[in-house]
Amino acid sequence: MATARIDIESRTGPVPLRTPYGSPQGGLRPNASSDVAEKKNGVLGIVRDYAIDRRFVPAGAELFAEGEVSENLYIVLDGWLFQHRILEDGRRQILDFALPGAVVGYRSHPEAPFAFSAEAITNAEVAIIPLNRVTEIIRSGSESALTLLEAANEALLGAFDTLTDIGRRTARESIAHFLLRMDRRIRRSASANDQGSLPFPLSQEHIGDALGLTSVHVCRTLSKLRSEGLVETGRGRLRIVDIDALSEDAGVASCDAGDLRLAS
Amino acid sequence: MATARIDIESRTGPVPLRTPYGSPQGGLRPNASSDVAEKKNGVLGIVRDYAIDRRFVPAGAELFAEGEVSENLYIVLDGWLFQHRILEDGRRQILDFALPGAVVGYRSHPEAPFAFSAEAITNAEVAIIPLNRVTEIIRSGSESALTLLEAANEALLGAFDTLTDIGRRTARESIAHFLLRMDRRIRRSASANDQGSLPFPLSQEHIGDALGLTSVHVCRTLSKLRSEGLVETGRGRLRIVDIDALSEDAGVASCDAGDLRLAS
DNA sequence: CGCAACCTTGATCTTAATCAATCGTAGTGG
DNA sequence: CCACTACGATTGATTAAGATCAAGGTTGCG
Lengths: 264, 264
Hints:
By secondary structure, chain A is an alpha+beta fold. Helices cover 42% and strands 19% of the residues of chain A. Chain A contains nine helices and eleven strands. Chain A has helices spanning 2-10, 38-50, 131-140, 143-168, 171-189, 204-211, 215-227, 243-250, 254-258; strands spanning 53-57, 62-64, 72-78, 81-86, 92-98, 103-104, 117-120, 124-130, 198-199, 231-234, 237-240. In chain A, the strands form three sheets. In chain A, strands 1-8-3-6 form a four-stranded antiparallel sheet. In chain A, strands 2-7-4-5 form a four-stranded antiparallel sheet. In chain A, a hairpin with a 2-residue loop joins β10 (231-234) and β11. In chain A, α3 packs across α4 (143-168). The two termini of chain A are 27 Å apart. At the A-B interface, β5, α3, α4 and α6 of A face β5, α3, α4 and α6 of B. The structure holds a DNA duplex (30 and 30 nucleotides).
């Protein structure tokens, strides 16, 4: 297996990879005996056993578009992407952000075209899993099948969190909660944290489009949080300074903050 | 198999079942050779092969609550339920509605407590699938495993639709889109449609809590749609009168209306 | 009959959107 | 190295969609 991994790994040679995001060794290393890395190892196992290729997606480029029919599912190896939908008049809703280890491109059944688009935020790289191999994974009843189901469930819980943010929280609560969730995901995903701050390549417009707000309002709200000393943002980095106060604002019991939504 | 099904079916005897919703024969009959019923048959297969019991949930009662730890997953056999989350100050976000055939109670991994609650809208009945049997299903690599993954994916797409409604559509667009989606789901789920109208047990407050609106605003918006002759609502029923106009309002190409979001 | 949910409607208020500059910063080419 | 450009962040003024508050009005049911 290690051989297979290295085989895939070696293919990266030709492409200009390694953005500042998703650390070189953090990404998808089979960090075998780590509990925390277990789930990612699961996804990694799928990449190792079923990926037929990888694809580099430069920042700003589309991985796939709504309505497109494709044979593939993708797993993020490096970089950040987001899945989104655009209404006829240009309004955009970001459905979720995909960090290394995320599965991207779900449809309800194999023949369905994509119901949304995916675009890279930073330079990114994804592994390509053909859908017929996904079926194969499931039919095999292997550990990977379980991983796939759990990944889907986790994505669903994430969507439910965002639903609550947008539907029933104020802009301030919503943004606070969002930052806490992202902080947690970034930590899980990888990444050295230089001086405690984390890589955070989202623009205020990204945040707004994820939370149903305008970038202007995100800016104002974020400014307040910053001036109150709860967070530090800017220059593509995020640092949560006062996690208790931020959790309070998010309407999350601070003890939950560590394991936000228990979506461990 | 037919025997097993009937066995389960026969257990319904003692409980006061059969609400006006979810028709007696529409529900979960193994309508073997129908294309449309294929997916439901899938879920039905899971019930047949893996359910250890069924549970009656009277209207207004809770099936499970956020934070609760449980060994079970549920599949709706009859009636309507919804999954929701309540913030400390009482604000409620409905995450989705569960009609017959829906899988209810997902968590990201088996040991996690519920991240939301579930409550019955009408009298309802669910099949109980122990989580260890879910794992078993996956490991078996059977058709049921595929069904389970597809159900999760479909739930995810539904959440993405709602996300777009709440985040980026106006109340009118959002409600129009919601009604179109529900119409489609109700038709799929079962149900004789007396005189063209469908059973629709949701209060305006349910709709509001699903779409991030107040019941007052839902009322006003619905009144307008009604007075413009687009829909008929009330007394627990729904009838979409002018599907083209409603689709237009929802911002969906009317040709898509039939197979909304292609989430076939 | 009388309560309890729901639904309706009106008046007023707030949050966040919209419109409109301005500013900073990072690249780019000269 | 420096003007030039572009995109994102800021800030202010104004507007609007939807919330909130407050009564009634229906409907259904014990």
